[in-house]
Write a structure and sequence with these properties.
Blueprint lengths: L1 H8 L6 E4 L6 E7 L4 E7 L5 H15 L20 E2 L7 E6 L14 H16 L15 H4 L5 H9 L9 H15 L2 H4 L4 E4 L8 E3 L7 E4 L6 E4 L2 H10 L5 H13 L6 H27 L5 H33 L1
Antiparallel strand pairs: 1-2, 2-3, 3-5, 4-5, 6-9, 7-8
Helix pairs in contact: 3-9, 5-6, 6-10, 6-11, 8-10, 9-11, 10-11
């Protein structure tokens, strides 16, 4: 199927295929031939062309900005389209991107934390200046209560308080998640008053590349699929939430904040909201995987793993909040 796609739409890029690090939402394949290398992405969880069009419009605008890092560059097919239907009856879309040289950072390593902060701050500034003329398809995080129609308040409460048999061992973790969901639901309206702009929305160690020779230097930010208009402070909040539980968590967050502040400063209100936005991010991820489970996309073990991990993140955030708030004020103001 992949060879047929390449031969039909990107014949000059056809070559040997190697499976890449496939995420929850997409399949990734690396394609090599003697002249060029590329990356094919197949969107697995939606069939919505508008989502990809918005992502590519943002990438096109960012290509014109003087960025110090690389971003994905879609390769037009022979028909001129940047996305094509997969010919397997699934109606999924496939896209091809030029290959970016670099390496994945170590998951527990913090060598790139400062550089990650720099590039995140730079991206925030660049996205703020993007004259996008399209409405985003993905909702902002603060529209949590409307974002997952298959997970009503009643369903979430029943699932967390009386979990199915296969989730009995996650009872305590589900209680933590439900408490966080209830608490954050009452604070969503106030978040709308914070400065808003385009945000990447899913920056983490799996969506960046570092220099193969200098592991502390971020050279590319990837995967703009969930780019939308949201509160500006959501960008660092998402990244910092990914540092929770790391062996060198405190140092990683400090370095990231130092790097971020070298490019952009936040208001006092934004800084105070970051712990709230971090909880919102963790709750949002829970609802994302709960929806996937309810809709039959994932088996129970996927949600079990996420529930345990996210509850641990919420516990860690509560334990770290005092010093984290001081650190955020010290470095981001």
């Amino acid at each position: 199927m992949i060879q047929q796609l390449l031969q039909s739409y990107w014949p000059e890029w056809n070559g040997d295929t190697v499976n890449g690090p496939t995420g929850w939402n997409n399949t990734t394949l690396f394609i090599h031939n003697p002249h060029r290398r590329s990356v094919m992405r197949i969107y697995n969880t939606h069939r919505d062309k508008a989502r990809i069009e918005f992502e590519f419009a943002v990438l096109d605008l960012l290509q014109r900005a003087p960025l110090s890092f690389q971003i994905p560059t879609p390769v037009p097919s022979t028909s001129g389209d940047k996305m094509v239907r997969v010919q397997d009856g699934s109606d999924r879309y496939a896209c091809l991107f030029a290959y970016i040289e670099g390496a994945r950072p170590e998951e527990e390593g913090i060598q790139a934390a400062y550089s990650f902060g720099e590039k995140t701050g730079e991206l925030v500034c660049a996205l703020a200046a993007c004259p996008i003329g399209m409405e985003p398809v993905y909702p902002p995080y603060y529209e949590l209560l409307q974002s997952y129609p298959s997970c009503s308040r009643t369903f979430i409460q029943d699932f967390c308080k009386q979990p199915p048999l296969e989730f009995q061992e996650q009872g305590n973790a589900l209680q933590i998640l439900h408490e966080a969901y209830t608490e954050i639901s009452g604070r969503l309206e106030s978040l709308k008053n914070l400065p808003r702009q385009l945000v990447h929305g899913d920056l983490n160690f799996s969506n960046l590349l570092v220099d193969s020779e200098q592991s502390g230097k971020v050279i590319a930010l990837l995967d703009f699929e969930f780019c939308t208009k949201d509160v500006r402070a959501m960008e660092p909040a998402v990244v910092i939430s990914g540092f929770l539980g790391m062996a060198e968590e405190k140092d990683a967050i400090r370095q990231f904040c130092e790097g971020f502040a070298s490019r952009v400063r936040l208001t006092e209100e934004e800084i105070a909201a970051i712990p709230v936005l971090m909880r919102l991010r963790l709750v949002d991820v829970f609802l994302h995987f709960l929806s996937r489970y309810r809709e039959g996309t994932d088996e129970s073990h996927v949600l079990q793993e996420q529930v345990d991990m996210l509850a641990a993140g919420l516990k860690r955030l509560k334990q770290s909040q005092a010093w984290m708030e001081d650190m955020l004020i010290q470095y981001l103001m």
